[in-house]
Amino acid sequence: MVPRRSGHQIDSRLFLPFDKLLNKLDGIAWMAPFHNADLVHAFNRVPIGERKYVISFESHLPRRFGIARDNSYTDWLTREISSRHCRRIIALSHYARNQFIDQTKDACTAEALKAKLLVRHPNVLMGPDVDPLAAELAEGRMDELVITFVGSHFARKGGCVAVRLAQKALEENLPVRIQIVSSLTVGASVWTDPTSEAFFKPYLDLLDLPNVTRFDGLPNSAVRQLLGRSHFSFLPTFSDTFGYSIIEAMAEHTPSIATPVQAIPEFVMDGLNGLMLPLDVDELGHWVQPEGVKHGDAAYEAFFAEEIERLADHALAAIRPYIGAPEKLLPMRRAARLTAEKMFSPAVSGAFYDPFYERVAAEKPSSDPQNTPLDVSSPTISDIEDQLA
């Protein structure tokens, strides 16, 4: 979120997340007192009592998960981010911006909120300048196509699709290896999943296939190396506010196979820097599920299984042209890395945030906060398509 290199002093402060006291209070936090900051940059949670702050968010603001109806608490949250204390509202994606506008459209302060809303993508450290697979791909060496899935929520992020893809490739004797990095969290605790753990057993059993390699847990540096040595990362997710493993893969020169949910179409373009699998989404980018069906119902299990099967079939069709064709991967890997450099590098983040912090810190707290012409929103993949091509 914040720049990794800055001309300013950026202090990370301890805070009290009130959701540890009550889940429904996820939208607020109290910072440790006696700090001497010129400006506070909060993330997701409204910082109680701060004189001047900006707030970044990934999907919903204010956060009110588990609160179905407006009440004095949610009204106060909206008033707080509408106040002069909140100088800017920074969506981490254009999806988040659209979600925020839709969420606050009925607020009496909707226009004031929109006036200080902008988009800045997160930033990730860039991997090595040289693609670790460039030499062997240029020489035509690729014994098997290696695809890596990363995600703690196994089913939500597409792990079931990954193992079915492995099974289908094995049945056709295709040289495809699937690598899984996951704690295998599934079931009722995940908002997209069928609630019965028995539903997932056939998919978890596929982890024992000879062309599947599973890692229980790895440090981020090891995951990044694994992604860099893969031909594709794999995130056929049903719900992801951003898809951070995709941009980490891009930073390691690796394109991704993904679904067009939420923010992902902002940085993955099919055939250019990755492969996009079809998934039915609404105008905001949310996965469309059958109405009136609960996640514990047999009908939902059948629907979920059909979606897994359909995505696995599409994934198999999408990767076929790249099996045994290393020369086709090289331009896609170059475009993936260039996307990371243009959209998510620390250099891009710092170039925006350093002068931004200076401008906002200098504003008088009595002035009405709104964007200036210098508060430029992040581009989408369409904006830099010509540079990538």
TrEMBL record:
Residues 367-381 have a biased composition (Polar residues). Residues 362-389 are annotated as: Disordered. One of its GO terms (molecular function) is glycosyltransferase activity. SUPFAM superfamilies: UDP-Glycosyltransferase/glycogen phosphorylase. It holds the Pfam family Glyco_trans_1_4. This is Glycosyl transferase family 1 domain-containing protein. It comes from Hyphomonas chukchiensis.
